[in-house]
Specification:
With 194 residues, the protein is α+β, with helices and mostly antiparallel strands. The chain is built from five helices and nine strands. Strands 8-7-5-4-3-2-9 form a seven-stranded antiparallel sheet, with no helix packed on it. It has a two-stranded antiparallel sheet with strand order 1-6. A hairpin with an 8-residue loop joins strand 4 and strand 5. Helix 1 packs across helix 2 and helix 4 packs across helix 5.
């Protein structure tokens, strides 16, 4: 199967970056990708190979099938052909979310999270229990301090759907944050928010 110079490779790189929680735009990101692939597959792809695969610094070359296979295995596929079969001839409309995430069911009452998304939005929220959160601090967002909402999960690189939002004197059945590129930061804070 010949898939290396098309949408398949672009999708593979994008999904690996999402799963690794980086954008492949800095040397630190490239080291993160090398470590992520090795941790997931127990196989090593060198830093120079990763630079070529992500065309970092103008480097590029036709990837080896063995390299593509390791990359595909890092996000749960048997090999690159299996990945390509899954994706068919178009960009998928659904997929497994593999990157960093926080499930609300794993939080306790009093736990605090910092969430960021573009352009320049940030909130700090406190878990109240029963999948409910109260906004403690808000910068650039339509959500304000003391607003409440419910959520099930927050995943890096994906938007978050908030339900049953109580905002000042109004309620919103559903509110989406991170529509432009998803959440850019998800951080669990200490109880004091530091």
């Amino acid at each position: 199967m010949e898939h290396s110079d098309n949408i398949y490779l672009d999708n593979l790189r994008r999904l690996i970056c999402e799963a690794a929680g980086c954008e492949a735009k800095s040397p630190a990101d490239l080291y993160t990708l090398v470590a992520f692939i090795e941790n997931r597959t127990r196989e090593t792809i060198g830093l120079t190979t990763v630079k070529r695969m992500w065309q970092y610094g103008g480097l590029s070359s036709k990837p080896r099938q063995s390299t593509l296979n390791v990359m595909a295995r890092s996000i749960g596929y048997r090999n690159y052909d299996d990945f390509c079969e899954h994706y068919g001839d178009c960009t998928p409309s659904s997929d497994i979310v593999l990157g960093e995430s926080i499930k609300v069911s794993d939080l306790k009452s009093g736990d605090r999270l910092m969430l960021r998304w573009n352009p320049g939005r940030e909130i700090v929220v406190e878990c109240l229990g029963n999948s409910t959160f109260r906004v403690l601090k808000s910068e650039g967002s339509k959500l304000h301090a003391d607003d409440t909402f419910q959520a099930a999960i927050f995943a890096l690189g994906h938007s978050a759907l908030l339900s049953n939002v109580i905002h000042e004197d109004s309620s919103w059945p559903l509110y989406e944050i991170g529509q432009q590129g998803g959440l850019t930061l998800i951080r669990q804070l200490t109880s004091r928010g530091e």
